[in-house]
């Protein structure tokens, strides 16, 4: 195992995330995929993805990549980060989902008519911290496990500075989340976990994370990538007024392929 692979493994296991330096193969993938990402943001049919007063393009599954991660006739998604996922972590039984194209613009976040004052303050003060797959449903926003992602792979598509709404993660939060939900689902068959209302446990786990885990901002450049554990609490920082106004905003694509099922989601690497 090389030094980079060993460091990434230690960081991922202990902190719940790791960073990969500039990779020529990934840089080539970004160069080919960026025009398609720009077209997706400009598509009239994707206007519904603009939120927060137009300062955030959510862009779920907006990148038209195939199951190999290739966009059009471009290269497959193959780089050191992918090698680490498949070889070191052993997470290789998946196809790439269509990536999210998440774009933030100056002024993010602005309040939305559809969210409460408390929800907006949480977005502003706590980076809208969340764990993927635990969807808020109904008028009371009760949380249930609906999606079973294997990991989050973040790939920046354009150059920005570190004040332009970087990705945020709470180091070590994946350990707390796993412990809390292991207790939440104890004695319940995995196929029934989706029926369990985990709202209270989820909120308690977030409070514990805020009290005990270090908040880290992860700026990155095109050709670099970062891998985040699926159970890690994460979010997006507000756009600082001291940042530059970039033509594309802060544009990152996120891959979150599904893993086997709820049991794997909780207990796999």
Describe this structure in words.
This protein is an alpha+beta fold. It has one domain (3-267): Jelly Rolls (Sandwich), CATH 2.60.120. Helix content is 30%, strand content 18%. It has helices spanning 3-15, 24-42, 80-88, 117-125, 173-184, 199-212, 262-267, and strands at 17-20, 50-51, 56-57, 100-104, 134-137, 142-145, 151-156, 167-170, 215-218, 225-229, 234-236, 250-255. The chain has a seven-stranded antiparallel beta sheet with strand order 1-10-7-12-4-3-2. Strands 9-8-11 form a three-stranded antiparallel beta sheet, with no helix packed on it. Strand 5 and strand 6 (142-145) form a beta hairpin. Helix 5 runs antiparallel to helix 6. It is globular, with a radius of gyration of 18 Å. The protein starts with a helix and ends with a helix.
Keywords:
single chain, 269 residues, alpha+beta, Jelly Rolls, seven-stranded antiparallel β-sheet, 7 helices, 12 strands
Quick description:
The chain is α+β, with helices and mostly antiparallel strands. It has helices spanning 3-15, 24-42, 80-88, 117-125, 173-184, 199-212, 262-267, and strands at 17-20, 50-51, 56-57, 100-104, 134-137, 142-145, 151-156, 167-170, 215-218, 225-229, 234-236, 250-255. The chain has a single domain, classed as Sandwich (Jelly Rolls), CATH 2.60.120.
Radius of gyration: 18 Å
**Strand arrangement, largest sheet?**
1-10-7-12-4-3-2
In whole angstroms, the N-to-C terminal distance is 18 Å
Total discrete domains: 1
Written as H for each helix and E for each strand, in order along the chain, the element string is: HEHEEHEHEEEEHHEEEEH
CATH topology: Jelly Rolls
Could you name the ranges where pLDDT drops below 50 across 5 or more consecutive residues? none
Percent of residues in helical segments? 25-40%
In the CATH hierarchy, the architecture is Sandwich
Structural class: alpha+beta
